[in-house]
Design goal:
disordered N terminus, two-stranded antiparallel sheet, carotenoid biosynthesis, metal-binding, Polyprenyl_synt, Farnesyl Diphosphate Synthase, Geranyl diphosphate synthase protein, magnesium
């Protein structure tokens, strides 16, 4: 049994077949998207998009948002109601509250206050600061889809959240995004200093793997090793770190295309969401074919998460988001609304949600209901 699936990264391609006019066309980037036929997701939109379809100045974006905000919010609310009606027999609110409480307790029990006090206080400050706990919930839901239990999945679920927290702590540093607000509170380095914030993030990263190895019960050693390999792969130089470094190196570059943006977010954001789902499937006892379907589901919702994040960044306030709103615009970063516009970005999000849920069609609807509801939650969340 292979430890990791090499398809988690994009593969080189010398040229692709242009869907618009039937001719061969070399791409600016030689990285192709893994979801379908090795083509970037952008090629499955209504047309191949190479440049922004509207002026991407701050004023133009603000004007669009101001003019259409009320109508868009009304439409979004309507779509959300329709989406959740398909799982109306499943009490998603109760599920979210129950799982969040379980995850929060497990995280608090895992990272105790001990010597050296400052490093553990820093770790706990960010880890226990709240948050949606989407990654651990996805991990648990994937495990339960195959007959596993919450307790079996919890060490892996907590590990995913520890690593996610580490990535936020490091992302907020002055050398990265230089942010002062996270989850409605001052960022870690603002409270504990940059040096401690870096070390606390490192400690969470290391402890995540220790926690999987020592706290996972009722799972074969072979599957635990596979979980460790999967998680390491999705956050390393071909996963989360790859997306982060390309993002950093892309700042100030004017001509960034959609496939380049997709590479960043498939790795920076989607990789850990994918890993969270796959970890749950592995410890839940899924076979390789089932894991493959869950992987495709997770990649779609992972990219969906970032598309929605980009939309919220320019349509919500800092108070509503619990973090600094509009910071990507200020930093002149390339985002989906900047390249596609708000409406096309929302269409793209809808498409990703549909494609994700198609991967669950062959599973027991009742057991798949939490994953379907979580996909809809990611698609229609407000913060």
């Amino acid at each position: 049994m292979s430890l990791v699936n090499s398809s988690t990264t994009w593969v080189p391609a010398q040229s692709i077949y242009c869907l618009e006019n039937g001719r061969s066309s070399s791409m600016r980037s030689n990285l192709c998207h893994p979801l379908k036929n090795q083509l970037p997701i952008s090629f499955f939109l209504s047309g191949t998009i190479r440049k922004p379809i509207f002026s991407c100045s701050r004023l133009s974006i603000s004007a669009i948002i101001t003019k259409e905000q009320t109508q868009e919010e009304s439409e979004s609310k309507s779509k959300k109601e329709v989406a959740f009606s398909s799982t109306s027999s499943f009490d998603f609110k109760a599920y979210m509250i129950g799982k969040a409480n379980s995850v929060n307790k497990a995280l608090e029990d895992a990272v105790l206050v001990r010597e050296p006090l400052k490093i553990h206080e820093s770790m706990r400050y960010s880890l226990l600061a709240g948050g949606k706990r989407v990654r651990p919930m996805l991990c648990i839901a994937a495990c339960e889809l195959f007959g596993g239990t919450e307790s079996v999945a919890m060490p892996s679920a907590c590990a995913a959240e520890m690593i996610h927290t580490m990535s936020l702590m490091h992302d907020d540093l002055p050398c990265m995004d230089n942010d002062d607000l996270r989850r409605g509170k001052p960022t870690n380095h603002k409270v504990f200093g940059e040096d401690v914030a870096v070390l606390a993030g490192d400690a969470l990263l290391a402890f995540a793997f220790e926690h999987i190895a020592t706290a996972t019960k009722g799972v074969s050693s072979e599957r635990i090793v596979r979980v460790v390999g999967e998680l390491a792969k999705c956050i390393g130089s071909e996963g989360l770190v790859a997306g982060q470094v390309v993002d950093v190196c892309s700042e100030g570059i004017a001509d960034v295309g959609l496939e380049h943006l997709e590479f960043i977010h498939i790795h920076k954001t989607a990789a850990l969401l994918e890993g969270s789902v796959v970890l749950g499937a592995i410890v839940g006892g899924a076979n390789d074919e089932q894991i493959s379907k869950l992987r495709k589901f997770a990649r779609s919702i992972g990219l969906l998460f970032q598309v929605v994040d980009d939309i919220l960044d320019v349509t919500k306030s800092s108070q509503e988001l619990g973090k600094t709103a509009g910071k990507d615009l200020v930093a002149d970063k390339i985002t989906y609304p900047k390249l596609l516009g708000i409406d096309k970005s929302r269409e793209f999000a809808e498409k990703l949600n549909r494609e994700a849920q198609e991967q669950l069609a062959e599973f027991d609807p009742e057991k798949a209901a939490p994953l379907i509801a979580l996909a809809n939650y990611i698609a229609y969340r407000d913060n």
